[in-house]
Specification:
single chain; 554 residues; alpha/beta; DNA polymerase, domain 1; Beta Polymerase, domain 2; seven-stranded parallel sheet; five-stranded mixed sheet; 23 helices; 14 strands; 14% strand; DNA-binding
Length: 554
DNA sequence: GCCGTTTTCGGCCCGACTGTTTTCAGTCG
């Protein structure tokens, strides 16, 4: 039983209490207890056994008993009781924007609504507009939200596509009559949002393969003689393209797309591998990520795009000092295990109250903790940083004296997203003028399938970032993948350097370095344009020089 | 529900925004 299982149970209790309880602090107490459990460096079961669990701040009498029960039995009777009061799936309603737990609780209590379909019905027939605290505008908003959630349902983020594609491919590979199978389509192109998973299947015995497919995909149907469609997991559409081994490469190229690329490629000759097909046409191989349009087809030589293994270290890592779920010790150890030469810790700054941003006092504690831990991870170097809020007026959170203490500063917008374009542009430009700023964090602010980024003049920002030597982050969080790879060329032309960061809030989120690298490849970046593809000495020297300049007030 | 003490109740991470209100509640970050 690991601490995260315990924390998840407490979180779920907290979520149910937010539906039922009029006192919001009771629900929040469970959230806080969950965070307290996550922040433990010690083994939860041992703390329970010794009774020390009650000494953990945020864990009281009631939560200590629940934690003990989870450790001893694997579940919580309190949670089971709460679950029994509501239909399963009631939390699906959270997918509707502007619907939170309070309103969902009210909708269920007064109208028995526990599904998106029921919600839509009640919004249409006027029941919702009549509820206290709701009204015609809210009802209208909900209908828009239902539409939004449904549209989104048929799309999914890249990691789900990769996972589903690889799983199906392995199952297909177990079928004796299948000679080869490979994922193609937008997943292979590493597009951040996908609509379906395409897989090319090479076989000489289509009939017997088709007979075995119902074990692998649900709702199977043939779109034509060479194409089957079905679903997997939570309604991910999968398309299988059947071909012969002799034409496998050609079919892989054709179904990888994009349409624009394939059309510009022209006649596709037969070929067992894609490489064969490119060679027959005397075209230099174009990486799948770079096939969104025809622009790469004219190159004389294959470009070696940046790879995850080129990255020597990373920045933008959170810990339990702010809103991370793993401790400093755990995050540093995990970075070292990944073979990094350096890691830059950057918890939130003091204005980010909602994310547990660090006051100056907490910052001192954090630096002391780094000092205590960094010896253990040698020779990996630990850089002291912050993800500082760009405040509404463009100033950087923390005063100059505090900012001087950091090896690096990631400046990010976390508030007032709906600012007018001109004002937002000035805000970000002013932040770039601050000599303490090293990186511009998640530049567009987009959350894929959730919200668009904020509005500002990208080119003016690129121009200024280039002038000031501020690097732009490629945030690898699959929900962000920000800066959008489509914008990278424009920044590159103005001399901007990029850095691939995980924005990790837990050990497992270091995996965002891989998604981030895909985004960098999609943008056509090579390792010479990536800051954290440089070795420790070079990076340390760069940061030290920048720090010296800013101390001198240059 | 948890915490702290100027202990056994009153506060609980803050601010912008929106729609519902006529003074506030819920959501979002």
């Amino acid at each position: 039983m690991d601490k995260f299982t315990v924390a998840r149970t407490l979180d779920e209790i907290g979520r149910y209490l937010a539906l039922t309880e009029s006192n919001p602090f009771k629900s929040r107490a469970f959230d806080r207890a969950a965070r307290a459990i996550e922040a433990l460096d010690a083994d939860v079961a041992k703390l329970v056994a010794s009774g020390e669990i009650k000494n953990v701040s945020g864990i009281g009498k009631a939560t200590a008993e629940i934690v003990a029960e989870i450790i001893n039995t694997g579940s919580s009777t309190y949670l089971e009781e709460l679950r029994a009061q509501f239909p399963p799936g009631i939390f699906d309603l959270l997918r509707i924007p502007k619907l939170g737990l309070k309103k969902i609780g009210q909708l269920y209590a007064e109208l028995g609504i526990a599904s998106i379909d029921a919600l839509e019905e009640a919004a249409r027939n006027g029941q919702i507009a009549k509820l206290k605290g709701f009204g015609p505008k809210t009802a209208q908003q909900i209908l828009g939200g239902v539409e939004f959630a449904r549209q989104r349902q048929s799309k999914f983020l890249l990691p789900r596509g990769i996972e589903a594609g690889e799983r199906i491919r392995m199952l297909l590979a177990d079928i004796a009559e299948i000679e080869d199978a490979e994922v193609s389509g937008s997943v292979r192109r590493r597009l951040e949002i996908c609509r379906n998973v395409n897989i090319v299947v090479a076989t000489k015995k289509l009939e017997s393969v088709l007979a075995k497919l119902p074990d692998i995909l649900d709702g199977l149907e043939m779109l034509d003689e060479q194409t089957a469609k079905g679903t997997t997991g939570r309604d991910i559409e999968v398309r299988l393209h059947f071909t012969t081994p002799a034409e496998f490469g050609a079919e892989l190229l054709r179904t990888t797309g994009s349409e624009e690329f394939v059309s510009a490629f022209g006649k596709i000759p037969k070929g067992r591998t894609e490489q064969d097909v490119f060679e027959k046409r005397h075209i230099a191989f174009v990486e799948p990520e770079r096939r969104e349009d025809a622009s790469e087809l004219s190159r004389k030589k294959r470009v070696r795009l940046v790879q995850a293994s080129d990255l020597r270290g990373t920045f933008h890592v959170h810990t339990t000092f702010s809103d991370g779920r793993n401790t400093m010790h755990e995050m540093l150890s995990a970075a070292k295990e990944r073979g990094y030469e350096y890691v830059g810790i950057s918890d939130h700054s003091k204005s980010a109250y909602y994310a547990g941003g660090l006051t100056e006092d907490r910052l001192r504690e954090q630096h002391a903790e780094i000092t205590a831990q960094e010896k253990a991870v040698k020779p990996m170097r630990v850089f002291r940083g912050t993800e500082a809020d760009i405040l509404g007026d463009g100033s950087i959170d923390y005063g100059p004296d505090t900012l001087r203490k950091f090896d690096f500063v990631i400046a990010s917008v976390h508030s007032q997203f709906q600012m007018q374009k001109d004002q937002m542009t000035e805000r970000i430009l002013r932040a770039l003028d601050d000599p303490s700023v090293t990186f511009l964090g998640h530049m567009t602010g987009r959350r894929l399938l959730t919200r668009d980024g904020y509005t500002f003049d990208y080119d003016r920002v690129f121009e200024r970032a280039g002038e000031r030597g501020v690097m732009i982050e490629i945030n690898g969080n699959p929900q962000r993948l920000d800066i959008d790879w489509r914008l990278v060329k424009r920044a590159l032309d103005r001399g901007v350097v990029f850095s691939i960061h995980p924005d990790a809030h837990s050990i497992s989120e270091y995996n965002a370095m891989i998604t981030g690298t895909w985004a960098a490849r999609k943008a056509g970046l090579t390792k010479k344009e990536i800051f954290n593809a440089r070795g420790l000495d070079e990076v340390a020297e760069f940061l030290a020089a920048r720090r010296k300049n800013r101390t001198a007030g240059l």
